[in-house]
Amino acid sequence: MYSAAQMKLLFLTVMLSTIIAITPFSTDLYLPAMTNMASDFKVHITLIQQSLSLFFAGFGLGMFIFGPLIDRWGRRQFVIWGIFGFMLASVLAAFSTQIEWFLTLRFIQALSGAAATVAIPGYIKELYGKDTPKGMSYVNLIMMLAPLIAPLVGSLIMGLGQWNLIFLFLAGYGLIIFILSVVWLRFPSDHQSHNRSQLSFIKNYQMVFSTPGVKLDILTSFFASFAFFCYITDSSFVFMQVFGLDKYTFSLIFASNVGALILGSFINGRLLDRYGSAKLLAAATLLAMMTASGLVTVNVLGLSYYYTILTLLPFMGCLWVMSVNADSIVYMQFKKEVGTASAVIGTLKFGSGALSGPLLALFHSGTAVPFSGLLLSAVVMACLCQWMNAFLKSRR
User: Fold this and answer.
1) Burial class of residue 129 (count of CB atoms within 10 Å of its CB; 0-12, 13-18, 19+)
2) CA atoms of 298 and 305, how far apart (whole Å)
3) What parts of the sequence cross the membrane (predicted)?
């Protein structure tokens, strides 16, 4: 049986995870509805797809703006008002009749969601203390369920009616976490102003970037995210165009790779007490390099897609372990500037998503070689960052 303290910890962990899950739900839930939306708005589907890029841009900008403000003025008010703004924008988006209004509301939805989610790593650090890496691993494990089920939920909603219901569903989701936050989001830091940063907006960022070793861990997280977005961007082309698989088979492969991310997060949580974040990050980076090298090899040799799957599955699990531990190591360096650190990491992560598409297009060859080559390049760069970090620490 769990104690009352353990049950409260579990509840708060799940609640914080549902707030972070705003992003994948907002981006993945309406993917099955894009064709219908283009028809209703009487625009080309590429314009509807651009709403996804606009959301990422708004989310990255929101994290950049709100991160230092949260460190200065406290987290709770930004979380609650951010969720409220997300909920309101979702309702208005559901009833939009002009594409211009819809795109504007998507941007507002992203800004509001960012105000809420950028505060969560600080709460996790406060909740778990020295076990923050474990807390981050658990939160990300729960959060990863969102992109796995979101397209399925979106398809089911589309079976009930028009695309508008998807955004009403998002509004309902926002309402639930809004109520939970108002009632349960009450941490000591919310009323202890002396624990907040007294630095200005710019100086908060200066503090983060001037902390020894942090920049290289942030870059490690950036390269891990870049590899992840390369997979998201190009996996459908690789499996459906290069290997000629149907949508059903691709869906199973995609789900299996999400499963690898979840398994990696679970294993990471179990091993953290024994080995710590730094060792797990180093081991995951080394294993990711090995599996990515195998991925490049099987595609250069033109082997069956089975070999691509066999090398990609462990690679994706390692990628998640790299990302979670690199982020946790950064957060543990700060007491009052966690929001700013989260903003830096989040902005760079979404920036890596914007970078992955053009680079994949630049090296496009009609094969899976550029895709696998970019994945290998990303983890090699992450490895170099970790090697340089270790070297600099030995010199201090």
Assistant:
1) exposed
2) 9
3) 45-66, 78-95, 101-124, 136-160, 166-187, 248-268, 280-298, 304-326, 338-363, 369-392
Rg (CA), the chain: 21
Q: Domains of the chain by range and CATH? A: 1-186 (1.20.1250.20), 203-396 (1.20.1250.20)
Residue type, 261: L
Q: Which residues contact 152 (CB under 8 A, 6 or more apart)?
A: none
What is the reported pLDDT for 285? 95
- Chain centroid, CA 340 distance in Å: 16
What is the distance between the alpha carbons of residues 130 and 37, in angstroms, rounded to a whole number?
A: 47
Give the tens place of pLDDT for each residue, 58-79: 888 898 899 888 888 888 999 9
Residue 62 in contact with residue 118, Cβ under 8 Å? yes
**Sequence-ordered alpha helix ranges (H) in the chain:** 4-20, 22-28, 34-41, 45-73, 76-94, 99-117, 120-128, 132-143, 145-160, 164-184, 201-210, 214-236, 247-300, 305-331, 338-362, 369-395
Do residues 93 and 109 lie in contact, with contact meaning Cβ atoms separated by under 8 Å? yes
Taking the C-alpha atoms of residue 328 and residue 154, their distance in angstroms, rounded to an integer, is 32
357: which 2 tokens? 């598409």
Low-confidence residues in the chain, pLDDT < 70:
1-2, 142-144, 147-148, 194-195, 396
How buried is 347 (Cβ within 10 angstroms: 0-12 exposed, 13-18 middle, 19+ buried)? buried
Write down the residue that tokens 């559901």 correspond to.
Answer: 94
Could you give the CA distance from residue 129 to residue 123 in angstroms, rounded to a whole number?
A: 10
pLDDT score of 59: 86
Tell me the torsion sign for CA atoms 330, 331, 335, 339: positive
